[in-house]
Amino acid sequence: MDTQSSPDNPNAPRIERVRHDLRRRALTVTDVERITPGMLRITLSGDDLADFVSLAPDDHVKILVPAADGTEERRDYTPRRYDAAARSLVLDFALHEAGPITQWAMNARPGDTLNVGGPRGSAVVSNVERWLLIGDETALPAIGRRIEEASGGTRITSIAAVADPAEQQAFETKAELTCHWAYRPLHEAADASALLAILRSVIIEPNTFVWVAAEASVTRAIRAHLTEERGYPLQWIKASGYWVKGKADSTEKFD
C-alpha cells in the first residue's frame, strides 16, 4: 500500500494506493438491462466473486472475450456495483462504439459466461468532503458509483457529457448532489466544448477534489482549464483519459 498526502496541509486529500491479488474469474450473466438507449447494465454472478475486492469507485476490471484469431480481446470496465456476500457484480457498458466487448454486451443473455480479471488495485481518496466529477459516457459508471457510495454530509457536483436528455441517469445518494448534463452528439465525444461551457459556470470551492475522466484530449483540455486558467492545485485533481480517439484499448494517465 502506498499513501500520498501532504504533511504540511492537514486539509489535503489523502490517496492510498492498495494492490489486490490479481486473478481471473469465470462469471455468469444473470440480468441484462438497458438503463438508457446508450447504456447497457449487465449483472454477473459466480462463486469466484466470494473474495472480490474493489475499494474505489473508479477501479477497473479487465473484461476478456475470445477474438476471431483465437486470442483474447481485453478492455477495462468499472465495477458499477458489487456484493461479495451475494457474489454479484454489475457492469455498465456505454454503447458508443461497436468494438468486440461492446458487441459481446449487446448480444449477452442470462446464462452466458464471461471471464473477468482484477481489479489490480485501488486508489482510495479520503479526507474529502466536496467533489467535482467530470466525464463522458465511459466515466458514468465511476461517477454513479462515487455518488451512490457517498456518505451524508458530502457535497458532490457532477458534469457529464451525453448524447441527449434520454441518456441522463438518476442516482440515489445520501450526499448533497448537483448534476449538470452537457449534450453533444457521440461523433463529437472528443470535443471538450460542451463540458467546458458548463465547467466555466461552476464555482469550485477550495478543498474540492476534482475527478476527470473522458476521451484523452477532452481530459487534457479540462485539466489545462483547471490548472492554467483557474490556477487550481494539481494535488486536488485526478485526471484520466479513459479512451483515445482512433486507438483501441488505449488510455492515458495525467497524474
UniProtKB/TrEMBL annotation:
Q: Which PROSITE patterns match?
A: FAD_FR
The terms under GO molecular function for this entry are: oxidoreductase activity
> Matching Pfam families, A to Z?
FAD_binding_9, SIP
The protein's organism comes out as: Ensifer adhaerens (Sinorhizobium morelense)
**Gene3D superfamilies (UniProt xref):** Nucleotide-binding domain of ferredoxin-NADP reductase (FNR) module, Translation factors
Which positions are tagged coiled coil?
none
User: Which superkingdom, per the lineage?
Assistant: Bacteria
Q: Which family does it belong to?
A: Belongs to the SIP oxidoreductase family.
Residue stretches making up the FAD-binding FR-type domain: 22-126
Residues in the signal sequence: none
Please state what the protein is called: FAD-binding protein
